[in-house]
Amino acid sequence: MISKSGRYWSIGITVTYIPLAGHLNNEPHSGWHAKLNYRDGIANNDPATGQIAIQGTLYTRYPVHSTKIRSGLSIALDTLIADAKRLGIEFRAATPGTEPWLFYQGDGEDADYPPPDGWRETLAAEAVRVGFRSYTIAPDAVSTGTSAQEDDAQARREKNTTCEGILVRPGQIWENLDTRLNNRHVVVESVADGEAQVRDHYSTARSTLSVSRMHTHPTGLRLVPPGELKYGARATVPDERAESR
Q1: Are 64 and 77 in contact (CB under 8 A)?
Q2: CB burial class (10 A; 0-12, 13-18, 19+) of residue 211?
Q3: For the whole model, what pTM was predicted?
Q4: CA 214, CA 200: separation in Å to the nearest integer?
Q5: How confident is the model over 103-122, as pLDDT tens digits?
Q6: Contacts of 158 (CB under 8 A, 6+ apart)
Q7: Cα separation of 99 and 96, whole Å?
Q8: Is residue 233 predicted with pLDDT exceeding 60?
């Protein structure tokens, strides 16, 4: 490993389902890919001292198919976790006090990587097994005697809540974690039906964001805590940041 400390960290694992991964005994079979992005603990390059930030990706080269006794997803996850441990890659939660994440590629919304039926339940079960967390599964609707208006208000609230349990509200500032966007920050102006209308923090440009994208992963967003930004710039530089997914 290149890191001076020999230690790296990752916020979790991203999986992808492959409907047609190959053929066994002339029969088509599906499979799963698993990958993780890792980085060292260096926040910024310092050539004078030789401290250079390093990051990388570890992933299954081929999709993993199921056996008679184990699912391909379980095998892929266990293999990646074991190799990460062997290479000195630790799993850390993006938010203190929580577990690392088990993601699906594109959060299940990328048309190029359609998830299988029941994927949320599948990932939730695997997350429990390996000590991670995953997407929230909405419980079956149960009549509680509340009014139709209260039920409707609850439904709207759930649509506007991220998978990390954050209710998106006007006035919040979110940081886009896509490194190609150069630390872009946006301000929520309004939110309804799972979509947030946002304004660029440094200009008047406006756009729409899906609430499902607003959680900590490399192409997602992070809620900026009060006081972190001062006069349009970051007040402090955190020593850790969610790496790409």
Answers
A1: no
A2: buried
A3: 0.57
A4: 15
A5: 999 888 888 889 998 898 99
A6: 138
A7: 8
A8: no
